[in-house]
Amino acid sequence: MKITLAVAMMLAMSMLGICIFKTYKEKNKYELAQIVRRTLITGFAIVFVNFISLLMINKTIALINYSIYFICADWMLYFLFRFSIIYMGEDFKKYVNKKIMYLVLTADCISILLNIPFGHLFSIKESTLFEDEIYFHIDTTNLFYTHYAIILMLAVFTLITLYYKAFNSPAFYRSKYLLIAIVLTVLVGMNFFMTESEIDFSVVGYVIEGVCIYYCSLVYTPQRLISKTIMDISQGMSVGLYVLDKDGEELFCNDAAEQLIKRINPPKTEDDVTLAEWCHSEYLNNTNEFTREMTFYRGEEELILKIQLQRITDGKNQLQGGYFTITNSTEDYKKLKKERYLATHDALTGIYNKERFYEKCREYFVANPTVEFYIICTDIKEFKMINDFFGTKFGDTVLTNFAYTLRNRLKLPDILVYGRLGNDIFGVLILKQHFNEQKFVTEAQNAFYYSGKGHNTFQMINYVGVYEVTNHNLPVSVMCDRARMAIASIKGDYHKRIAYYDNALRDNIMLEQELISDLGAAIAQEQFKMYLQPQMSSDGKLLGAEALVRWMHPIKGQIMPGSFIPVFEKNGLISDVDMFIWETACKQLRKWKDEGKTDLYISVNISPRDFYFLNIYQVFTDLVNKYQIDPKVIKLEITETAVVMDFNRQLELISRLRQTGFIVEMDDFGSGYSSLNMLKDIHVDVLKIDMAFLKKAEDEDRSKKILQMIISLSKQLGMPVITEGVETAEQVKFLSEMGCDMFQGYYFAKPMPVDSFERLYERNRSR
Ligand code: C2E
Ligand code: CA
Ligand code: CA
């Protein structure tokens, strides 16, 4: 029997030993681990002294052992009490006065130790229980109950704490407290009922209680608590969680996953496989873990799901199950798509923006280095003016309509890529062989007709510039620049709608750049000269002259106005040249006035652009004041173009100039598009008929009829007519017969320097 007990105690000691050892490993709950350890150590001591008692067959040693046993019991219960409070998460000092506790316990311990010599608490008796083995047990006096009382008090405090907590905790936590409490209750009961028994079984109780508190407080977390907590957490997650066991049977499915998997109309793949079916088949057929982005469809609706499969294995690497996490990233995807779209598309027209257009073209060039392409740019004439006149909303419609034309009317296979490069500039990439100039220009022009108002009251032109891709490696932006240079070369030209970039154009552009950069010096150094071309009456009298500019370039020699005037008109620099010529003319008229040649006049040209940049009325009145000349000796040649550009304003300006005494001539009459109709509103002094009428026309008769009509009409309106470009005697004859009053042309004289003109004048007057 003794042997059995000894073995049991050794077992108990090793169990406690292991627990004590393990408390040292507990890093997180330091305070709790410490108090558990103390409780266990005192428990261990209790078992140990009992064990010694078993082996020692000496009465005195038994007495000492029992004393230690009772002392240890005191402290163990004290530690247990402290444990219960700390275990509740409370501060022990808040509830118990430690000093009083120590005092009581120390007093009891001293009393127990004094019992060894005095025997006032208990004495040792030899048991008669076992026949052949000696065993000692104790015989207690009434005083011994003070010790019991202390222990009982501690045990009751502990129990109250534990039961209180157990019944005030969520159900899942209850077991943690209840187990310790029940074991302690049994232990107390055993002590209470077995005080008289010869064998003290309470040792067993201490061991169980010790292991219990270690297990409950430091090791055990209720399984149900874990699953419930995890479930609650996963229910709240926006990520779908779909857990399967090793055979692919569903174990758990959170709300988010249920939304996707179990609803009435579940999302399906393109092949009509539902999400749940897809997950199962992937789970069973796929041994790997994966993350995939899949597109599912719920009717028309597109769902982008990010699906991840994870597998769970046990300690031996055996498959235990697996789970899918399903994230609905449709919104993110849409957002991303939108962002990407906005980064690559023009917000107004929805077609590619500049960057994307360049990028796409580059892709074509890289993939097809030997194929012949055209890069085409289009540019709407005076788009800013369209915006100003009709409002930006109309301007937007014009642009949107052109984008529409590109997308729907010119589309593939003709057009490979198209985009809006900025403002009113569009870019197109096209295979050279597919380019149909006629069709492209017509469509580009027709785009305006869909825009409603404006297209017929305002001459809208969509210029087309073409660059043939000769070097596929050139940056696309440079190619576009070249196409636009081609456009620049025809801007202001009413007849041309399309231009190709070629070497001649490039040289031309270079030349233009040179002219522009030379202009400043030219004016400063007076490189511009006024030439005069005589204007004659039908009977050969010299009436006056038209001032025509010549550029005496120090390097390039004499440059004719046809080469530089259009260049300067494009950028407005023409005004500088004109102002110079006007002033020169006035200076000359003043000189003639002083010389008594008051019967001469000079006609000066006013470029349409001058009306933009100058206050024409102011400039000319200032000039006649400055040189003190009669306004009627300076004739102002304005063109139809200038008039139609801003009809009402010009009308007013012309009448003001005429009222002041200036003579206004309508230059190049018949070369534009308004002509006869315009005469009814515009009152000018002289009509200057364009020399085109005198060119050898295919139908000369017809030309002459029109000429005749214009001349008689202007006569009827009281306007003298001057015809320019007269080159032959025959022309003079029939024009005279038609009623033309004045002539200008090579037949009489070419434009000449002022001194030559003056000599001519002298000769003419002395006829
Ligand atoms: P325009 O105003 O029509 O001037 C008449 C042009 O016809 C002049 O050319 C003149 O030399 C040319 N011409 C005169 N008679 C004949 C002829 O019998 N046969 C032919 N084939 N041509 C003849 P030019 O001097 O080369 O000037 C060309 C254009 O440059 C002018 O056309 C005018 O629009 C512009 N221009 C000339 N000087 C000035 C100027 O000072 N200011 C402005 N804004 N433009 C000017
Ligand atoms: Ca002229
Ligand atoms: Ca003219």
**Could you say what the CATH architecture of the largest domain is?**
Alpha-Beta Barrel
User: Which runs of at least 5 residues are low in confidence (pLDDT < 50)?
Assistant: none
Based on CA atoms alone, the radius of gyration comes out at 56 Å
With strands numbered from the N-terminus, the spatial order across the biggest sheet is 13-14-16-17-18-19-20-21
Task: Write up what this structure looks like.
This protein is α/β, with parallel strands linked by helices and 767 residues long. 54% of the residues lie in helices and 19% in strands. The protein contains 28 helices and 22 strands. The chain has an eight-stranded mixed β-barrel with strand order 13-14-16-17-18-19-20-21, surrounded by four helices. A five-stranded antiparallel beta sheet has the order 4-3-7-6-5, sandwiched between helices. Helix 27 links the parallel strand 20 (721-724) and strand 21. The chain binds ligand C2E and calcium ion (2 copies). Ligand C2E binds at residues 533, 547-549, 560-562, 565, 574, 578, 581, 605, 607, 667-668, 724-727, 744-746, 751.
